[in-house]
């Protein structure tokens, strides 16, 4: 391993999302979001994928952990102080759209919501922590999903533009780093989270998914335009899931399948948002998924906007790699789960308790693939290990498994920097325990800070430091040179 010094202004920090930690889902004028309608438990995704799910909240049948989160809305000063104690240079969080526009289609913002984020941003700055804000992170207004049909409706471009303009104008002089949509490519496998599309409102039809993506691309470019007009110093990026993808063997059939999966999942959205135009393989992708290109609502003005306002950097999540097998019979035991992208089991990798395959070398590959393709700065804005943590009798939480996971990924980051990759920063996911997006569980923990709350909502909500807290503090203090 070649030791490589990270940049002196490298952005070490952590990442969260409003809908997974704030709670206070109906306070101070906040409206309901799609996240508020997602039940908790391991059946969350199967429920959302059912034919009958229509975004109705059913308190008699399900629990909704997002409604309470970890009460960050009332405890954010305590939480930011803990991040400051670790030495965070930045903190990635999101703005809940429904705190600003409760239904999403209003023209006048909710001042109480704006004030909350003013206070949160000021608290970060007081501790010399740079805010990194995701404008929309899996929490579009429920009204826009139910009444307008989600992002397949072109009207959402205007609603998002109003939202983005409001927050960029309000906070753009204080906040330099922004992202437009969280994991925008996730809709390829699960459009409910980012597009508000379930089967009952068109989520089972790729025509709708690709139309929704186009509408989001246009909305993203409008946000980039607004951001640069508000403050030319703003850096505003896209954000995708990246899963380094391997063929299961050297069979050319599997190699071609890997190429196609990379194009469809890892590159399609970034090709548009970074290069400012649809890639050459788009027509073939449309044909494969039964998309009628002529029926898509795409104007010349849209395409000119995409070209004129690409993003400044690429933010991405990296948790695992994926293996592709098109030629051999796959037993059920050989299928793995992951961050909205499965695949077949890679015999060379171990997996987390939730079946996500752990591949630090894959992060080095991801960084090189992305940087060599786009030559834009990269920002790892999610990475981490979801695990069950045990509180010992003396109160200690010895999460050496998390330290090992993060250490190996940071080592791979250093290797990529030595390869010549321009890496802006690193914000591990769930720097404080929060509600899981995929299952609504608290038991799937990622944080350096433990929150006393279980899957049924029982607990004191008290915060305590895990062993990884002091380890990460040392990593930041030494700018990534001491990982022991």
UniProtKB/TrEMBL annotation:
Instruction: Write the record's keywords in alphabetical order, separated by commas.
Output: Glycosidase, Hydrolase
Q: Name one GO biological process term.
A: carbohydrate catabolic process
Q: Give the record's family classification.
A: Belongs to the glycosyl hydrolase 1 family.
Molecular function terms in GO for this entry? beta-glucosidase activity
Q: What Pfam families does the database record attribute to this sequence? A: Glyco_hydro_1
InterPro entries the UniProt entry points to: GH, GH_1_N_CS, Glyco_hydro_1, Glyco_hydro_1_AS
Query: Catalytic residues?
Result: 382
What cellular component terms from Gene Ontology apply here? cytosol
Q: Which organism is it from?
A: Enterococcus phoeniculicola ATCC BAA-412
The protein here is known as 6-phospho-beta-glucosidase
């Amino acid at each position: 391993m070649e030791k490589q010094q990270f940049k002196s202004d490298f952005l070490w920090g952590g990442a969260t999302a409003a809908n997974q930690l704030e709670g206070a889902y109906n306070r101070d004028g906040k409206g309901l979001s799609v996240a508020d309608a997602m039940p908790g438990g391991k059946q969350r995704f199967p429920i959302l994928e059912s034919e009958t799910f229509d975004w109705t909240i059913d308190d008699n049948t399900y629990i909704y952990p997002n409604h309470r989160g970890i009460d960050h809305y009332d405890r954010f000063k305590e939480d930011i102080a803990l991040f400051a104690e670790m030495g965070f240079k930045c903190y990635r969080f999101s703005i809940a759209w429904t705190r600003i526009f409760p239904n999403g289609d209003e023209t006048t913002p909710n001042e109480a919501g704006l004030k909350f984020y003013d206070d949160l941003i000021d608290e970060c700055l007081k501790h010399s922590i740079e805010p990194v804000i995701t404008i929309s992170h899996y929490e579009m207004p429920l009204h826009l999903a139910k009444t307008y049909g989600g992002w397949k409706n072109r009207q959402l471009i205007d609603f998002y533009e109003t939202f983005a303009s409001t927050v960029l104008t309000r906070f753009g002089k204080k906040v330099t780093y922004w992202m437009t949509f969280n994991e925008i490519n996730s809709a390829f496998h699960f459009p409910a989270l980012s597009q508000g599309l379930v089967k009952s409102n068109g989520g089972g039809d790729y025509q709708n998914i690709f139309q929704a993506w186009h509408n989001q691309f246009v909305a993203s470019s409008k946000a980039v335009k607004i951001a640069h007009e508000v403050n030319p110093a703003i850096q505003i990026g896209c954000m995708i899931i990246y899963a380094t993808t391997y063929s299961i063997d050297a069979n050319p059939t599997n190699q071609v399948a890997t190429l196609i999966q990379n194009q469809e999942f890892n590159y399609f959205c970034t090709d548009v948002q970074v290069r400012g135009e649809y890639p050459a393989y788009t027509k073939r992708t449309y044909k494969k998924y039964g998309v009628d290109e002529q029926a898509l609502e795409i104007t010349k003005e849209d395409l000119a906007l995409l070209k004129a306002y690409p993003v400044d950097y690429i933010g991405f999540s990296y948790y695992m790699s994926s293996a592709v097998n098109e030629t051999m019979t796959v037993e059920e035991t050989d299928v793995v789960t992951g961050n909205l992208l499965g695949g077949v089991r890679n015999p060379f990798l171990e997996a987390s308790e939730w079946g996500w395959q752990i591949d630090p070398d894959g992060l080095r590959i991801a960084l090189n693939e992305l940087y060599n393709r786009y030559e834009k700065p990269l920002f790892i804005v999610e990475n981490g290990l979801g695990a069950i943590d045990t509180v010992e009798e003396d109160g200690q939480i010895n999460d050496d498994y998390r330290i090992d996971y993060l250490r190996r990924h940071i080592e791979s980051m250093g290797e990529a920097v030595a390869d010549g990759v321009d890496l802006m920063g690193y914000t591990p996911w769930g720097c404080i325990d929060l509600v899981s997006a995929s299952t609504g569980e608290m038991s799937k923990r990622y944080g350096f800070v433990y929150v006393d709350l279980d899957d049924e909502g029982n607990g004191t909500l008290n915060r305590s430091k895990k062993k990884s807290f002091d380890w990460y503090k040392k990593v930041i203090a030494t700018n990534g040179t001491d990982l022991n």
